[in-house]
Amino acid sequence: MDSAQLDTPENITALCHYYRAEMDRANTWRRRLDVTTNWAIVTTAAFLSVAFGNANFPHFIIILATIFVLFFLIIESRRYKYFYLWRWRIALLNENFFSQLISPGISPLHSDWREMLSAELKRSQFKITFIEAFGRRLRRNYGWIFVLLGICWFAKVFIHPTPIEQFSQILERATIFDLIPGTVVLATGVIFNITLILIALITYKRKREVEVQIRPISKQ
After folding, report:
1. Cβ-based burial of 210 (10 A; exposed 0-12, middle 13-18, buried ≥19)
2. Cβ neighbours of 149 (radius 10 Å)
3. What is the DSSP string of 75-114?
């Protein structure tokens, strides 16, 4: 049966209502992504204002902001997994059903798209792992926030309470409340940022079963 034609008009109507429902789900979870990103930005701005507003505040406040931002990134990565699931379903319908309604002469990208969607509805599974979602949100938004926090941390250590005069002062100022040595703090920061970079690079490319794409029009 031609994939542009379903059994009955009632089935087509039902599929259109289903599409609208998936669009609403995708939009809802997309807004939730924006919420956590806004939380991260507001938290960063607030902590940096406090850190640089008083020279006596320790640099640890910027490290604390980094921990909060990491927490928001973890939350957003989980939300992105749900958003990507709805997006996958929408892309499947766009590429294989609605594209043929508009131009029946074009074959669908996936000849078995009905079976794919049916199997998905019977047993839904995330189309992206947590680490992949983490890497995507890191590259898209949070990487820039972590870069800003890292620069501001070094600036805080360098200029407060007075500008440093020699490198050894960096290790002294990096100490946290005389409990954690500066070398440990610096080493932890380096490992943390290298880990983020590796995650961003490792998850940069991923083969997807369904993806919104543009291809040349060719009639069969």
Report:
1. buried
2. 20
3. HHHHHHHHHHHHHHHHHHHIIIIIHHHH-TTSPPS-TTHH
pTM: 0.83
The amino acid at residue 82 is Y
Q: Give residue 105's identity as a one-letter amino acid code.
A: G
Question: CA quadruple 205, 207, 211, 216: dihedral positive or negative?
Answer: positive
Count of positions (residues) in the chain: 220
Dihedral sign computed on CA atoms, order 168, 173, 178, 182: negative
Residue 7: predicted pLDDT: 60
pLDDT, the chain, mean: 85
What the block records as the tokens of 110 is 């996936």
Confidence check: pLDDT of 213 > 60:
no
Lookup: tokens for 93:
């319908």
